[in-house]
Amino acid sequence: MKRGAYLNAVRRPLANDWLKAPPTREFAIKPREFQASLRSHLGAKIYRPDTKCQLCGTVMQERGEHAVGECKQGGCRHRRHNTVRDTIGHLGNAAGLKPGIEEKDLMLDDGSGLASGRKPADVYFPLGLVEGQARAIDVTVVSPTCPTYVQRAAQTRGYASCLASANKRRS
């Protein structure tokens, strides 16, 4: 079932574009990370059967599903989120849009007029992206092989990302 969910995910438009990206100094990937990503992409084993997660102690699956999307203590999912967030911020900065990363107090509490302390945006563009209006970008990273999504993701292409997007819009 996990393999079906994974295959549906990599068949989505643009899903494999990372393989075409030329290396740059700003967005370099370490050789070991690239090797692990490529092995995962090809469905090859990454870990020995007895390897434990350094963050939570769970025995890792050989193909790395735990590290990519299942570890509740962080792992690759948080690192990927932060990399995407920081890349958007870097590009916005290069464009002169003066983005803020993980800024607090952009939202007011219900009717009180006081700042809520919540972080509604991973990247906030006060100068705007369209017609000068401020914009907020909220980054979400999901894995279709995560137990929450795997059964439906094996049947429906894009299920994990669509559900994650819908959940973000509700909160």
Shape, per Cα inertia axes: globular
Helix content: 25-40%
Category from helices, strands and their pairing: mainly alpha
**Largest β-sheet summary:** 3 strands, antiparallel
Distance between the termini: 29 Å
Q: What's the tally of helices?
A: 6
- As residue ranges, the low-confidence spans are none
Spatially, the strands of the biggest sheet line up as 1-2-3
Rg estimate, integer Å: 18 Å
Amount of beta strand = 5-15%
> What oligomeric state do the depicted chains represent?
single chain
Number of strands: 3
Mean pLDDT: 79
SSE string: HHHHEEEHH
Attribute tags:
mainly alpha; single chain; 171 residues; 6 helices; three-stranded antiparallel sheet
Tell me what the structure shows:
The two termini are 29 Å apart. The chain has 171 residues and is mostly helical. The protein has helices spanning 2-10, 31-42, 65-70, 75-94, 150-155, 159-170, and strands spanning 100-101, 123-130, 133-137. The protein has 6 helices and 3 strands, in the order H-H-H-H-E-E-E-H-H. The radius of gyration is 18 Å and the shape is globular. The longest helix is centred in the middle third of the chain and has 20 residues, at 75-94. 38% of the residues lie in helices and 9% in strands. It has a 3-stranded antiparallel beta sheet with strand order 1-2-3.
Write the layout of secondary structure elements.
Layout: H1 2-10, H2 31-42, H3 65-70, H4 75-94, E1 100-101, E2 123-130, E3 133-137, H5 150-155, H6 159-170
Antiparallel strand pairs: 1-2, 2-3
